[in-house]
Known about the structure:
With 98 residues, this protein is mainly alpha-helical. It contains two helices and no strands.
Amino acid sequence: MILHLLYILAFTALAFLAVGNLIRNLMALGIESQRQYPQMARSQNRPAPHPELLDENGRVINEPLLVMRSMSVEDAREQLDAIYKSSPGGESTPSNDD
């Protein structure tokens, strides 16, 4: 019976220590989240540009990188056929798929 009472007292003390530690950690986390850190050299309001948008010297490129025009399906097929025919072995080898 005394051993049971000793276990209950020990676990109660451990529970109070754990809850107190949890409360202290939550308070410290709240204080740290409100803390103002000094700003770095680069402004945090403007994000850094993607590396592909910079030239060799690190300056931002102000020209379009990709220009696309719309085309019909027939135009695309004609261009693909022309590429296929101009490729090595494109039109010179007969097909045996019949």
